[in-house]
Automatic annotation (TrEMBL):
<dbReference type="GO" id="GO:0008184">
    <property type="term" value="F:glycogen phosphorylase activity"/>
</dbReference>
<dbReference type="Pfam" id="PF11897">
    <property type="entry name" value="DUF3417"/>
</dbReference>
<feature type="domain" description="DUF3417">
    <location>
        <begin position="13"/>
        <end position="121"/>
    </location>
</feature>
<feature type="modified residue" description="N6-(pyridoxal phosphate)lysine">
    <location>
        <position position="609"/>
    </location>
</feature>
<dbReference type="InterPro" id="IPR000811">
    <property type="entry name" value="Glyco_trans_35"/>
</dbReference>
<keyword id="KW-0021">Allosteric enzyme</keyword>
<dbReference type="InterPro" id="IPR011834">
    <property type="entry name" value="Agluc_phsphrylas"/>
</dbReference>
<dbReference type="GO" id="GO:0005975">
    <property type="term" value="P:carbohydrate metabolic process"/>
</dbReference>
<dbReference type="InterPro" id="IPR052182">
    <property type="entry name" value="Glycogen/Maltodextrin_Phosph"/>
</dbReference>
<dbReference type="GO" id="GO:0030170">
    <property type="term" value="F:pyridoxal phosphate binding"/>
</dbReference>
<keyword id="KW-0119">Carbohydrate metabolism</keyword>
<keyword id="KW-0328">Glycosyltransferase</keyword>
<dbReference type="InterPro" id="IPR024517">
    <property type="entry name" value="Glycogen_phosphorylase_DUF3417"/>
</dbReference>
<protein>
    <recommendedName>
        <fullName>glycogen phosphorylase</fullName>
        <ecNumber>2.4.1.1</ecNumber>
    </recommendedName>
</protein>
<keyword id="KW-0808">Transferase</keyword>
<dbReference type="Pfam" id="PF00343">
    <property type="entry name" value="Phosphorylase"/>
</dbReference>
<dbReference type="InterPro" id="IPR035090">
    <property type="entry name" value="Pyridoxal_P_attach_site"/>
</dbReference>
């Protein structure tokens, strides 16, 4: 008989061991080796059996073992030390506390639909979640006062296995929050906090809030599986990225609107300062901006436009993908249904909501509501996640700032990073601590160059062997599930080899990642694997989205190839890619391969994990690798990304990949000196660690966010809110006035002196006569734009210089200024008028500009 309800009965720990509970309830254990060691010593066998999940460990450990530990003085001393260390970690001042209170926000809310904190908390599907987890952990390490917000999915993301013929099977094991390191957020009186959201048919969607402690960072997870909800409402948080459009929208309303309400409850109950900055990751949480507008309208009497300004100033929006399928778009009618009726947000008219998400640019679809577009309109600061992704995003979304060249679109970038303590193998950490002690403080990376190659090589051997053993265990489990008998599995004992060049390839399986590119020429791949002198082994893992039949076919193609008797000891597909397998792979592989269709990989982070463990990257120059590949830290697979024929592109890129592996990767791996060491290889590894190490760390990333986005956003938000939101009121009124008057604003005349025979180093005197209509000179900035011009007279990478007001002429305003002729060759300039207000983040923010109809004053001569 099936149980109708599942509970986790917690162990009552003997008094001396109560501290274990405190340790378990803070997820810091997931990246703290000493605490993990302590858990292991509770029961080493069980620790392996429960896959390093301490809640399960404590749930299943035998009472007599607990009784013995309660008497074990040595264990108790270690326990006490671990608790003392955790408390220190939670309270001591860290990097952020040294910044001083002026710039630094009192708190930052971080919203993401998924979080990858630990394999035992399966609330992530891929890169976005892992990044969010690493962001929170790093914020904790640096003392950044972040509050994370997400949803608790009762079935998380699916776990994957294979059918006998290699087809992906999905399982959704139900999780019991009581069996996870979570506590329920409760009112002072003890009753659980209830968040509710009104629905169009008069129903309420209710949720409770789970609190996960990620070191110093609280993570609030909303969960709609509560008794007051009907079946449909209870299922809103049933699984990650499942269900239809309505379901998706409800999840996002709960995340955005409910998330803000959960933060308010948390701050009220726990005396936490209110966030000054809200960081939205991808469009999914975008409704948080609407809820904050509602609050301001409701509690401070602001108009929608005034509230919008106040909210925008304190909002950071990060776009995480250039792939259209990764961006949420809803039919406009659906938005109408949920935000239009009496259940909509008071003070937030549905027409305004619809306008925020409408694709008003050329090629935009007028029938959809675009969450990313809304995110950009609701956030004064927007960024992509690598330099190249910044470029691509400026092109993709440039239409929102129509008046400006792509280069000036106000979308910046902060390249992602990874949390070292989570991803770097213990052995590598120990080697670093021994050989490069300065590294422990985050500098002195060049010290890696002096580490003896033999020491690195022996650590690499340990990690490769561990991976091989773990892969054999996983293979055996997978073959057993697929129906193989023991006799059919004896080959697995010798599958893979701890001394063979090991290539890893693991990621989600959307088509742009091209899981099967390596199989483009199966004979050539077979030859690589079976090379008698320089063999290669490949470990592959990845999940296809449950609705993605194409992706499942790719997995099946790989599995079928890897099932063949002649190659199965050299190429394996390991099911159920998760954080634990990710750690094993990125630590144990010599080479981390990635071959996306450039430029669709926004950043990618798995290759960073490999690099920090002494692996080398072999990748298309996309995402982070485009930025930091330097010719010596790995290999770049040439991309044929100009080619429109995708089939031919695959063939060319696959051929280049084989060639690189044969002629370069395998050659240098197997080129050994008298001591048996691959000298050249180890030089590359050291160079990689020394130069990439400091860049790929999430500490670099989080510091960048604090300095470039959070602190400026907090300053903007304060400028809006002080004096009963005087700034927001003023800016909203100003914008309305300026936008109304803008059509009359024009550059009427431009001339210059000094352009007869210009020489580099001289200045050009520019004069412009402009018509400001009803606007005041203070409302605008008049700028000269100048620089090198191309064959079409376009100014390439333009520089700007502000012109100064120099009197009036017939109701027009005269501006003058000097342009430095700072380069030889073809040079040009123009003049433009942009809106100017001290509360804007930049001159392009409003997306409007007035320029001369025909750029006059072009001095298209050569400068000498
Ligand atoms: C690191 C990681 C990712 C993200 O890596 P990409 O390089 O973006 O593919 C996804 N899933 C898991 C389990 C990871 O560990």
């Amino acid at each position: 008989m099936k149980a109708i309800r599942r509970l986790t009965v917690r162990t009552v720990l003997p008094q001396p061991l109560r501290g274990l509970e405190e340790l378990v309830l803070n997820l810091r254990w997931s990246w703290h080796h000493e605490t993990l060691d302590l858990f292991r010593s509770v029961d080493p066998g069980l620790w392996e059996a429960v896959r390093h999940d301490p809640v399960r460990l404590l749930g299943e450990v035998a009472p007599d073992r607990l009784a013995a530990l309660a008497e074990d003085r040595r264990f108790l001393r270690r326990l006490e030390a671990a608790i003392g260390d955790l408390r220190d970690y939670l309270t001591a001042p860290r990097w952020y506390q040294a910044l001083g209170a002026d710039g630094a926000p009192a708190a930052i809310a971080y919203f993401s639909p998924e979080y990858g904190i630990a394999a035992a908390l399966p609330q992530y599907s891929g890169g976005l979640g892992i990044l969010a987890g690493d962001h929170l952990k790093t914020a904790s390490d640096l003392g950044v006062p972040i509050i994370g917000v997400g949803l608790l999915y009762r079935h998380g993301y699916f776990s994957q296995s294979l059918s006998p013929d290699g087809w992906q099977l999905e399982h959704y094991p139900a999780i019991d929050p009581n069996g996870l390191p979570l506590t329920l957020l409760r009112e002072d009186g003890g009753e659980p906090v209830r968040i509710t959201i009104g629905l169009p048919d008069g129903r309420d969607l209710a949720a409770q809030v789970w609190l996960a402690r990620v070191g110093r960072v609280p993570l609030l997870l909303l969960d709609s599986d509560v008794e007051d909800n009907d079946r449909a409402a209870r299922d809103v948080t049933d699984r990650l990225y499942g269900g239809g459009t309505d379901h998706r929208l409800l999840q996002e309303m709960l995340l955005g609107i409910g998330g803000v309400r959960a933060i308010r409850a948390h701050c009220r109950i726990n005396g936490h300062p209110a966030p000054e900055v809200f960081h939205t990751n991808e469009g999914h949480a975008g409704f948080l901006g609407l809820e904050r507008i509602r609050e301001l309208v409701d509690e401070h009497g602001l108009s929608f436009d005034e509230a919008l300004e106040a909210v925008r100033a304190g909002t950071v929006f990060t776009t995480h993908t250039p792939v259209p399928a990764g961006i949420d778009r809803f039919p406009r009618e659906l938005i109408h249904k949920y935000f239009g009726g009496p259940a909509g947000l008071p003070g937030v008219p549905v027409e305004r909501v619809l306008a925020l998400g409408s694709e008003t640019y050329e090629d935009g679809d007028r029938t959809v509501f675009n969450m990313a577009v809304m995110g950009m309109r609701l956030g004064q600061r927007v960024n992509g996640v690598s330099r190249l992704h910044g470029v691509v995003s400026r092109e993709m979304f440039g239409g929102l700032w129509g008046g400006f060249d792509t280069g000036e679109v106000p979308i910046g970038s902060i390249t992602n990073g990874v949390h070292a303590e989570t991803w770097v193998a213990r052995e590598v950490m120990d080697l670093a601590a021994r050989e490069v002690p300065a590294l422990m403080d985050g500098h002195g990376w060049e010290g890696v160059l002096g580490v003896p190659g033999g020491q690195i090589w022996s650590v690499r051997r340990v990690l490769r062997e561990r991976l091989v053993l773990d892969a054999r265990r996983r293979l055996r489990e997978s073959w057993r599930q697929r129906g193989a008998s023991e006799a059919e599995m004896s080959w697995i004992d010798d599958a893979l080899d701890p001394d063979v060049l090991t290539i890893g390839f693991a990621r989600r399986v959307p088509s742009y990642k091209r899981l099967t590119l390596m199989m483009r020429d199966p004979d050539r791949l077979r030859a690589l694997l079976l090379d008698p002198d320089r063999p290669v082994q490949i470990l592959i893992a990845g999940k296809a989205h449950p609705a993605d039949e194409g992706g499942k076919r790719l997995i099946q193609d790989i599995v079928r190839f890897a099932d063949a008797e002649d190659v199965r000891h050299r190429i394996v597909f390991l099911p159920d890619y998760d954080m634990a397998l990710g750690q094993m792979l990125t630590q144990g592989c010599d080479v981390w391969m990635n071959n996306p269709l450039r430029p669709l990989e926004a950043c990618g982070t798995s290759g960073m994990k490999a690099a920090l463990n002494g692996g080398l990257n072999l990748s298309i120059r996309d995402g982070w690798w485009d930025e930091w590949y330097d010719g010596q830290n790995g290999w770049a697979i040439p991309s044929a990304d100009g080619l429109s024929d995708s089939d031919r592109r695959d063939t060319l890129e696959a051929a280049a990949l084989y060639e690189l592996i044969e002629d370069h990767v395998a050659v240098s791996f197997y080129d050994r000196d008298a001591a048996g060491l691959p000298r050249r290889w180890l030089e590359m590894v050291k160079h990689t660690l020394a130069t990439l190490g400091p860049k790929v760390l999430a500490t670099r990333m989080v510091r960048d966010y604090v300095r470039d986005l959070y602190a400026p956003a907090a300053a903007s938000a304060r400028a809006m809110s002080t004096g009963s939101f005087a700034g927001a009121r003023e800016l909203a009124a100003w914008k309305t006035r300026v936008m109304k008057a803008w059509p009359a604003v024009a550059v009427d005349h431009v001339d210059s002196t000094g352009d007869e025979s210009p020489h580099v180093g001289e200045n050009l005197n520019v004069r412009a006569i402009v018509n400001l209509g009803v606007l005041e000179p203070d409302d605008v900035a008049v700028e000269a734009v100048y620089g090198r011009v191309d064959d079409t007279d376009s100014i390439v990478t333009p520089a700007h210089v502000q012109l100064t007001r120099d009197g009036a002429e017939n109701g027009r305003v005269r501006y003058t200024g000097e342009i430095p002729l700072d380069r030889t060759g073809p040079f040009g300039y123009s003049v433009r008028i942009v809106p100017h207000h001290p509360l804007l983040a930049g001159t392009t923010e409003l997306g409007v500009v007035a320029q001369p109809p025909d750029p006059p004053g072009m001095t298209n001569g050569d400068l000498r």
